[in-house]
Amino acid sequence: MNLALFDLDHTLLPIDSDHEWGEFLVRIGAVDAAEFTRRNDEFFAQYQAGTLDPVEYLEFSLGTLAQFPRERLEALHKQFMAEVVMPAIRPEVVALLKQHQDAGDLLAIVTATNHFITKPIADALGVEHLLAAMPEYDDKGNVTGKLVGTPTLGAGKLTHTYAWLEKMGKELGQFERSYFYSDSHNDIPLLSVVTHPVATNPNTALSAHASLHGWPSLHLFND
Fold this sequence. Notes:
By secondary structure, the chain is an alpha/beta fold. The chain is built from 9 helices and 7 strands, in the order E-H-H-H-H-H-E-H-E-E-H-E-H-E-H-E. The protein has a 7-stranded mixed sheet with strand order 4-3-2-1-5-6-7, sandwiched between helices. Helix 1 runs antiparallel to helix 2 and helix 1 packs across helix 4. The two termini are 33 Å apart. InterPro entries: HAD-like_SerB, HAD-like_sf, HAD_hydro_SerB1, HAD_sf. Keywords: Hydrolase, Magnesium, Metal-binding.
């Protein structure tokens, strides 16, 4: 068994699911459009530049989720999946995942986007294991707006991957081949420790780093 890890946004999806969730809430009138769009775009630009404070962003993102009761959130997410996510799933991505699944590899998505947003997406992609920022829930199943544990961003992805493998009684070094597919330079810490890093639809910074270190590049889509 080999290990295949995947970033989600702009790697398996040609969109940023976290940013698109915010845009979706604005579009349907669920949040204040002007203020939410301003902050959402600001955080997205910080992420692209590699300057994002993950805790600050997650407090904003999870605080938005906390405005809605769980049943309302579930209904909103179902609509979001139908209107935004499902049309964005490309056959090239399905084929890549199937290639690893058919080989008997252990697959996981490792994403900085929170678990509430990404769990239905992972399910739609047929990936059982998901490592994502975990919201805190109250005893009624509502999001409190707080983060459980540490963010899954940058070096945090490495921390969460090691902890997940340990819970499964495994270590990264025991896999003959370990893959990590990502588009972002933010993921260089995890890309640097697997045996087969793959710069997937890479941004400019990651493309330069991959070229310097002889990492292969994979272009599943260009948008």
